Amino acid sequence: EAGVTQSPRYAVLQEGQAVSFWCDPISGHDTLYWYQQPRDQGPQLLVYFRDEAVIDNSQLPSDRFSAVRPKGTNSTLKIQSAKQGDTATYLCASSRQNYAEQFFGPGTRLTVL
Amino acid sequence: QQKVQQSPESLTVSEGAMASLNCTFSDGTSNNFRWYRQHSAKGLEVLVSIFSDGEKEEGRFTAHLNRANLHVSLHIREPQPSDSAVYLCAVITNAYKVIFGKGTHLHVLP
User: Mind telling me how many Å the CA of B95 is from chain A's nearest CA?
Assistant: First the structure.
């Protein structure tokens, strides 16, 4: 069974530029999570979906961040106008509904100069 | 809201010596605790999940949970240089949210 895949693995931007991250969850997993992990911090949940519906986006900076999962499978996280404070690793995870086990992808390491 | 704190921030041990990592949490109503390992540029690897007070062993990794003291620890027997990584403590809430600590950087010297 293939794991969670993410792309790109690395991104380097200037402040003000836009970037998108892509996640392909494990087949059959209806729940998908996006986490932000700043350097020397633990992952912090940004948003999660069940199928195509957003369940909780309370920690997503809505003025610049957006996330979609239009067909309930792959997902895209976008930062419209990146800031240096967005420098972090962005992790995607997936799980089956009502199962605590989340499976994590390798992450995208973002550096904003 | 559940808060998770880990100590120490960084730990250096020699190959073969026991490594002990600590984690405290603020809300004792959770009953699902997990230790992850994170190598640079890799995803999170689950090491041990523990659901009740006491001890749970998975190979060289042993977790101890004491919910009355709001404490869970991880002990690594005979650590090797390849175990050098960041170790993350996580508490899974009753709503299946995962709350992570900041991590302990473990360095194992050959």
Answer: 8
Q: What is the pLDDT of residues A74-94, one digit of tens each?
A: 999 999 999 999 999 999 999
| The two three-digit tokens of residue A64, written as one number | 């610049």
- Asked if B47 is an interface residue toward chain A (Cβ–Cβ < 8 A), one would say no
SS3 percent helix, strand, coil of chain A, rounded to 5, is 5, 50, 50
What b/e readout covers A50-70, taking b as 16+ CB neighbours within 10 angstroms? beeeeeebeebeeeebbbebe
- Determine the pLDDT at residue A98: 67
pLDDT digits (tens, 9 = 90+) for A31-54: 999 999 999 899 999 999 999 999
| 3-class SS of residue B30 | coil
How far CA A23 is from CA of A15, A51, A93, in Å, comes to: 23, 14, 9
Portion 60-79 of B in contact with A at CB < 8 A:
none
Inter-chain residue contact A44 with B43, CB threshold 8 Å: no
pLDDT in tens, B1-39: 889 999 999 999 999 999 999 999 998 888 899 999 998
d(CA A30, CA A49): 8
Place of tokens 């996280």: A77
- pLDDT given for residue B30 in this prediction: 85
